[in-house]
Specification:
Elements lengths: L5 E5 L3 H13 L3 E5 L2 H11 L3 E5 L7 H11 L4 E6 L4 H9 L4 E4 L4 H15 L3 H8 L11 H14 L5 E4 L6 H10 L8 E5 L5 H9 E2 L11 E2 L1 H4 L4 E5 L6 H13 L1 E3 L6 E3 L3 E6 L3 H6 L5 H7 L2 E4 L10 H15 L6 E2 L1 H9 L5 H15 L4 E2 L6 H4 L30 H7 L15 H11 L5 H20 L4 H8 L3 H11 L2
Helix pairs in contact: 2-3, 7-8, 14-16, 20-21, 21-22
Length: 503
């Protein structure tokens, strides 16, 4: 690629042009130089470069004018703007005009070579570029796989029809992005898009959040407040994780969908609402219906059209595209030289199963981008679970030796029941290594010694609770919903404890 790629440099400084010419020719690129914008445009039309570097401050025609003219000729042209004057207005204007990237002077040539490499990779993706133009506008959805092509087709069909849509897929697969794509490609695009997570809002507050409330409806309701259905009037309401909505709210939602009217909490006035509803879930609603946890009539009401969003495991060919896309976003957001993923890193990312889907991939790229001190992100910078393919090997332990169950070999706390004791000491009198937590007795002894008199119980239990919460949160990558479900407590309780212990 490097041997045939053409680079055009437009800059009124001779030293800059000379440096570019030497470095780019050495790297194997074909280079053309122009000392002003007018000559630069003439060379662009005859030379037809792959990448264009344009300085902003130039006589006769400045770089922004050159950028605008080139983008008018070719909307896909990759123009990198250069300037020593990095004020916000200039940067924003350049990016609005479609600049591929923004380079601040002074810069090192390695930074330029990295930008060229990244730009050429993007330009030469072929099918990716074609899909990017077909992907729904204002959605953030990325992918050129056949699975995503089917999603795009469905979005295109349902966008023009004002029907209720159910988006299904695993957590982190991008269900809200699908909802946004439907909204922004529909006739409602100029109206509001409101999203609500049915898991994140307390059940007792859900009704007032959706339908609003009147003054005096409950303690603290000092004035009337419209709900999300009123705020989304004429637009779209996205109900995420609708499978977690309780049965009482399901009945009220069904009535709204059928009658197109809401009544505020504490009120009796019917308010007409014109809102399109898009629901999403990562649960099997049919199973929930069988279990009596989801209304069948509501299921059929929200599932006029179903869009099944594939997991990242089902479209592995999209992983390199998504990884590079997230990397480019971070490069645009952060200071310093832009970073890129090495081919080895791309290979490692493609081999991982991604249980957290696109959200986990984005988090992994952000972590790697932060940890890497070089311009190239290597496999060693990736999260450990990704590097190991999701199979973190446990620490090898020495096999436990069976010992005779004697008072000297097994220490039993006074509160241990016979049933619990049989779990520690088997019927043969041997100690079960899996049942005993190593060192826990000694640990409790030490903590009891440190605990203040009269408060030992709270002191010890809080120490254990804090560590339990921390490890649970780490296990679920600090996802509070998943961690709370695993622990068997509510999310509000978990939040309170996180605040209590400063986690």
């Amino acid at each position: 690629m490097a041997g045939t790629a053409k680079i055009l440099v437009v800059d009124d400084e001779h030293s800059v042009r000379w440096a570019f010419e030497k470095a780019l020719q050495k790297a194997g690129y074909e280079v053309m130089l122009a000392e002003n914008g007018i000559k630069g445009l003439k060379l662009y039309e005859s030379f037809k470069p792959d990448i264009i570097f344009v300085d902003i401050r130039m006589p006769e025609m400045d770089g922004l004018q050159v950028l605008k003219r080139i983008r008018e000729i070719d909307p896909e042209a990759q123009v990198i703007v250069m300037t020593a004057y990095t004020d916000m207005e200039t940067t924003v204007t350049a990016m609005k005009l479609g600049a591929y990237d923004f380079l601040s002077k002074p810069f090192n040539i390695d930074e330029c070579l990295l930008l060229i490499s990244r730009g050429l990779n993007t330009r030469n993706t072929g099918p990716e570029a074609a899909v990017a133009t077909q992907a729904p506008k204002s959605s953030g959805l990325k992918g050129n796989s056949s699975a995503m092509q089917e999603v795009y087709k469905l979005i295109g069909k349902v966008s023009v029809e004002d029907v209720t849509v159910l988006v299904t897929g695993e957590s982190g697969s991008g269900k809200e992005l699908v909802a946004q794509a439907i909204h922004y490609n529909s006739t409602r695009s100029s109206k509001p898009f409101w999203a609500i997570n049915c898991t994140a809002i307390n059940e007792s507050l859900m009704e007032s959040e959706l339908f609003g409330y009147e003054k005096g409806a409950f303690t603290g309701a000092s004035s009337a407040k419209p709900g999300m259905f009123e705020l989304a009037q004429g637009g779209t309401m996205f109900l995420d994780e609708i499978g977690d909505m309780n049965l009482e709210m399901q009945a009220k939602l069904l009535r709204v969908l059928e009658e197109r009217e809401i009544v505020r909490v504490g009120g009796n006035k019917r308010i007409n609402v014109d809102v399109r509803v898009i629901a999403a879930t990562n649960k099997d609603l049919r199973r929930l219906i069988i279990d009596g946890r989801f209304r069948e009539d509501l299921y059929h009401r929200i599932k006029v059209i179903e869009i099944k969003l594939p997991s990242l495991r089902e479209r592995p060919e999209d992983i390199p595209l998504l990884a590079r896309y997230f990397c480019s976003i971070l490069a645009a957001q952060r200071r310093g030289s832009p970073k890129a993923l090495s081919e080895e890193s791309i290979g490692v990312l493609a081999a991982y199963s991604w249980p957290g889907n696109v959200r986990e991939l984005r988090n992994a790229i952000e972590q790697s981008y932060t940890l890497s001190r070089d311009q190239m992100i290597l496999p060693e910078h990736l999260p450990v679970e990704v590097r190991l393919g999701g199979h973190i090997k446990p620490v090898k332990e020495e096999p436990a030796r069976a010992v005779e169950a004697t008072p000297e070999s097994v220490e039993v706390l006074p509160t241990t029941s016979d049933k619990e004791l049989r779990g520690v000491i088997g019927h043969t009198g041997e100690v079960s290594a899996n049942a005993v937590l190593p060192g826990i007795n000694a640990l409790i002894k030490e903590m009891l010694k440190e605990s203040p008199a009269g408060n030992a119980y709270s002191f010890v239990m809080e120490k254990f609770e804090q560590e339990l919460l921390r490890q649970s949160l780490e296990l679920h990558r600090w996802n509070q919903v998943q961690s709370a479900a695993h622990l068997g407590i509510t999310r509000n309780t978990l939040r309170a404890k996180i605040e209590k212990y400063g986690l």
